[in-house]
UniProtKB/TrEMBL annotation:
Record's GO cellular component terms: cytoplasm
Record organism: Halopseudomonas pachastrellae
Lineage: Bacteria, Pseudomonadati, Pseudomonadota, Gammaproteobacteria, Pseudomonadales
Co-factor binding details: Binds 1 divalent metal cation per subunit. Can use either Co(2+) or Zn(2+).
GO biological process, one term: aromatic amino acid family biosynthetic process
Record flagged with keyword Lyase: yes
Record protein name field: 3-dehydroquinate synthase
Length: 359
């Protein structure tokens, strides 16, 4: 088992990574402060992993909430179901919530934990590749609004992240590719050597080779932990974790959340960010093509949905959380492995990029 740390003074916490670590009762229980636990999961993950998790919690007063599966349910009314269940079961403020599932469950459970009785503990038990390499780490929690992705939420850190790589065995191929999008992102923004390693190992990663996937999770979590520790609330450098997301979130909102997976939208979004970086002369054509080829090799789209035009992007991107005083900022590449958050592009350059992707 590998243990990394997210270093945030009194909000620091461990990330455990390993095969079968969910069978380690003591490891889980070490991070539960009180005697009450509520496990939050979805109706796809519950039949797979809920019972065995509950067995590790004997001696606690445990309840569970099973939410409907998917991005379309990352909203107020689903969150309300969590609060209703916590109140109906008389959970007190020493309760620990456990998020058992993918990023949708992790983001909503974290937000519920931030709000319930003004804040209770929570633990992340991510079961998708995407949530193991990204969403379970860093404390961004929240829900979507029809006008924009993750528009309501809080920065609220978990007490621990338990990544059991065995849970990936049941993950559908499409979800594996979605997780690879965020892994490719880390290479593009911060680590050119990791990018080369990903190029060499992409086929085996898609086949879920255990040793390679474990290394990819460790490297991704290490990069994310370092960036979050440097800038917990995204005052500056943390925004590089948003590479491809301004375009990608616009795609998700345009499609009504759910028909394109988050990772798929980020894949196409990163291809668009590579293209704009190239148009600005910051990376070469060959570097752009190399990035796009890797996104494609991960099984991800490299163009936005048919019928989505430049004006759709401009409208939806104008509500991005990186907009300051009406000025859009984007994460672009100054080189492979070197991301910047910048407003140094003209509206015209952006429009040409967007029009270039129209189909
Ligand atoms: N907070 C952050 O920093 C952060 C980072 C990245 C993404 N996100 C958010 O995460 C969400 C995407 O997360 P996701 O890709 O995990 O999606 P998800 O939570 O919808 O899970 C994907 C699908 O896999 C199923 N599933 C989960 N674990 C499984 C398993 N082990 N076996 C079989 N099926 C399983 C789920 O039921 C769901 O159908 C988006 O809402 C995105 O905005 C947040
Ligand atoms: O942790 C971060 O910071 C990220 O930006 C990680 C992203 O992969 C993730 O999708 C995040 O939820 C996006 O955040 P948002 O602030 O753009 O909604
Ligand atoms: Zn993301």
């Amino acid at each position: 088992m590998q243990c990394l740390k997210v270093d945030l003074a009194d909000r620091s916490y461990p990330i455990y990574i390993g095969a079968g670590i969910l069978s380690d009762e003591a490891l889980l229980q070490r991070h539960i402060a009180g005697r009450q636990v509520c496990v939050v999961t979805d109706d796809t993950v519950a039949p797979l992993y809920l019972e065995s998790l509950l067995q590790k919690l004997s001696g606690y007063r445990v309840t569970s909430v099973v939410l409907p599966t998917g991005e379309a349910y990352k909203n107020w009314s689903t969150l309300q179901q969590v609060f209703d269940a916590l109140l109906a079961e008389r959970h007190d403020r020493r309760t620990t919530l456990i998020a058992l599932g993918g990023g949708v469950i992790g983001d909503m459970t974290g937000f519920a934990a931030a709000c319930y009785q003004r804040g209770v503990d929570f633990i992340q038990v991510p079961t998708t590749l995407l949530s193991q390499v990204d969403s379970s780490v860093g404390g961004k929690t929240g829900i979507n609004h029809p006008a924009g992705k993750n528009m309501l939420g809080a920065f609220y850190q978990p007490k621990a992240v338990l990544i059991d790589t065995d849970s990936l065995r049941t993950l559908p191929e499409r979800e594996v590719s979605a997780g690879l999008a965020e892994i490719v992102k880390y290479g593009l923004i911060r680590d050119a050597d990791f990018l080369t390693w990903l190029e060499q190992n992409m086929a085996a990663l898609r086949a879920l080779d255990a040793a390679l996937v474990t290394y990819a999770i460790e490297r991704s979590c290490a990069i994310k932990a370092e960036v979050v520790a440097a800038d917990e609330r995204e005052g500056g450098v943390r925004a590089i974790l948003n590479l491809g997301h301004t375009f990608g979130h616009a795609i998700e909102a345009h499609q009504g959340y759910g028909s394109w997976l988050h990772g798929e939208a980020v894949g196409a979004g990163m291809a668009m960010a590579l293209d704009l970086s190239c148009r600005l002369g910051w990376i070469t054509d060959a570097e752009r093509d190399r990035g796009v080829a890797l996104i494609s090799a991960a099984g991800l789209p490299t163009v936005p949905p048919k019928g989505m035009v430049a004006a759709d992007f401009e409208r939806l991107m104008s509500v991005d959380k990186k907009v300051l005083d009406g000025q859009l900022r984007l994460v672009l590449l100054r080189g492979m492995g070197e991301a910047v958050v910048t407003a140094e592009f003209t509206a015209d350059a952006l429009r040409q990029c967007l029009v270039g992707f129209e189909q």
